[in-house]
Amino acid sequence: MEKAMSTAPFKSSAGRTLVYDSYDQLVRQWQVEQQSLFIDTSCGRTHVIVSGDRGNPPLVLFHGVGDNSALMWIYNMKELTRHFLVIAVDTLGGPGKSEPNARYTRQFSQSEWLEQLLSQLRIELGLTGLYNIAGVSNGAYLACRSAVLFPDKVERVVCMAGGLTWSMLRMMRTFLPEALFPSEKNTARLLAKLCAPDTQALTGNPELMAHWHCLLKYFDNRLMMAHKNTKLTADEIRVLQPKALFLIGRHDRLSNYPQAIRVLDNSDANYRIIDDAGHAINHEQPERVHEEIIHFLAKKGS
Fold first, then answer.
1. Quick check: helix, strand or coil at residue 264?
2. Count of Cβ atoms closer than 10 Å to residue 59 Cβ
3. How many other CB atoms sit within 10 Å of the CB of residue 258?
4. According to the model, what pLDDT value does residue 8 have?
5. How far apart are CA 83 and CA 104, in angstroms?
6. Distance CA 272, CA 2 (A)
7. pLDDT per residue over 202-219, tens digit each?
8. Residue 45, SS3?
């Protein structure tokens, strides 16, 4: 009989403690007041961090694969909370503080999880308006999927370092071999590959570097295989097109390549190529990213 996969996101309890301690250190660098909540869903408890004025429009944030809210939004939260009620989600199955249950590895449905999460957040936070959603990398996909699945719940989405197509081969070429041998030196090499040349947005922050090293060393990334990302259909892209802005780093190995840009062009997508940025676009060019997000989300109903 095949042994059931563990639902523990981390390879050891000691690794979990190191990741959580490092997570909390990064959140303190946000320099904003926050509330930590757990949202119950059928496949586990989803951890979210809520910051900002409850009277501001809600902005849900999704991070990428292999990272979490603490790491992803360290350079963005302070400015975004000036304009939005920001809800940073630790993806269920990812290396944040969310807690999958036994059903997660057997019957997880990404669409069901998103629907339950958005519905429960509305109740928990007393929200009445539509959601804005932004995400980076796989978080950009989750933002797109949310807008397509729930057009009556989502006002606009901003998709960073992620377009309408993706390449598993490109991802493997970028993350390997460093991700397989997570030494401190390989962690620095991998982060450099995710950035534009000569930028130190990631490698210049020792606590961020230490956290990334912990994630590479202790996170069991097999858990994210439960998320079955599917290609958007032409009809789904038509639903998404008027609601979405795509921000792509000029040096992004994972989302700025000819085929991906052709898909954006052929879909008449609204996108910007951001200079001096790679896949870590919101870390490398936070001011430009904030400007684009705030301007785009302010154009509600236009």
1. helix
2. 24
3. 7
4. 85
5. 35
6. 47
7. 888 999 999 999 999 999
8. strand
Q: Is 165 helix (H, G, I), strand (E, B) or coil?
A: coil
**Helix, strand or coil for residue 151?**
coil
Q: Each residue of 237-253: pLDDT tens digit?
A: 999 999 999 999 999 99
Look up residue 23 and give its amino acid: Y
Whether omega for the bond prior to residue 177 falls within 30 degrees of 0, making it cis, is yes
Angle at 118 between CA 116 and CA 124, to 5 degrees: 95
* pTM > 0.70: yes
Six token digits for residue 266: 């052929």
At 202 the pLDDT is 87
CA distances for 70 relative to 90, 102, 146, 162, angstroms: 9, 25, 22, 20
End-to-end Cα separation, the chain, in angstroms = 57
The number of C-alpha atoms within 13 Å of 176 and in the hemisphere containing its C-beta is 6
Task: Give phi and psi for 31, each to the nearest 5.
Answer: 60, 40
- C-alpha span between 97 and 70 (Å, rounded): 10
The residues that bridge with 41 in the sheet, in sequence order, are 44
| Angle made by CA atoms 173, 250, 148, in degrees to the nearest 5 | 80
